[in-house]
Write a structure and sequence with these properties.
This protein has 230 residues and is of the alpha/beta class. It has one domain (8-229): Alpha/beta knot. 33% of the residues lie in helices and 23% in strands. The structure holds S-adenosylmethionine.
Length: 230
């Protein structure tokens, strides 16, 4: 029996208790520190192409922009404004460590500043504002929350099928790969594997779909309640 997922959880910084409905975890994000001699803080295909081509699983390395876009979309989402979203991520090179993002955290709009922030996080395990905190991936994911891994090769349910699987009754977790190509490599606890489309979508597109359809489900639920109360 897995440990229960806390329905309410507090973030030390904001001291606000929020009701988490949807937990989105970006896994195997292609974010890692660049070699010390590099003038760029993170490994990035645009600057370290030759180096990355020689690494194992090169298709999952050197794309911090993928996580950047996901965080921008998720932190700005209606679901996050409603206080119903928990966002976390882990990286390809250190899958045992995860990072939980405070709902009030505004990712830098500039990619250069985002790289600086991520480098600080990976070097020290925290950022100055403490709005991202580290936790072991096992502690973060080892519970009894229903967890769906999103992949093109999963059960083909499409957008309608996905919408019908979202529930407002209990928390749900969605795992999205934070890399450019290939499949997941490290074991991650999940209950099903779902495909939203026959197309290979970008991680940020998938993150946006999950957050938007979850907010729409909540809105539908609220409307239903109001109509029943009339
Ligand atoms: C660029 S894709 C990686 C491509 C990978 N070959 C795949 O089959 O999903 C990054 C992530 O987006 C998500 N994704 C991409 N296409 C998807 C789809 N059609 N349905 C559900 N998730 C998808 C998956 O979580 C994937 O790990």
């Amino acid at each position: 029996m897995r440990v229960c997922f806390p329905i309410t959880m507090s973030f030390s910084q904001s001291l606000v208790r929020i009701i988490v409905l949807v937990h989105i975890h970006i896994f195997e994000a292609a974010v890692e520190l660049a070699p010390k001699r590099s003038k760029y803080p993170l490994l990035d295909l645009s600057y370290h192409n030759n180096l990355i081509r020689g690494l194992p699983s090169a298709e999952k390395r050197g794309r911090p922009d993928i996580l950047h876009r996901c965080l921008l979309i998720l932190q700005d989402s209606i679901l996050n404004h409603l206080g119903k979203l928990k966002v976390s991520f882990s990286t390809y090179s250190d899958p045992g460590t995860s990072y939980v993002v405070d709902p009030s955290m505004r990712p830098p709009r500039s990619y250069t500043r985002f790289m600086g922030l991520m480098a600080e996080l990976l070097r020290t395990g925290e950022i100055k504002s403490s709005l991202i905190r580290s936790i072991s991936t096992k502690d973060l994911l080892d519970d009894d929350v229903h967890t769906s891994l999103l992949s093109k090769s999963g059960e083909k349910i499409g957008l309608k099928g996905f919408f019908s699987k979202i529930t407002t009754r209990k928390p749900q977790r969605f795992l999205i790969g934070g890399f450019q190509k290939g499949s997941w490599e490290r074991p991650l606890p999940h209950d099903d594997v779902l495909s939203l489309s026959d197309y290979t979508l970008s991680s940020s597109q998938v993150a946006g779909i999950v957050a938007t359809l979850s907010a729409l489900k909540l809105e539908n639920q609220e409307n239903l309640k109001q109509n029943e109360g009339r």
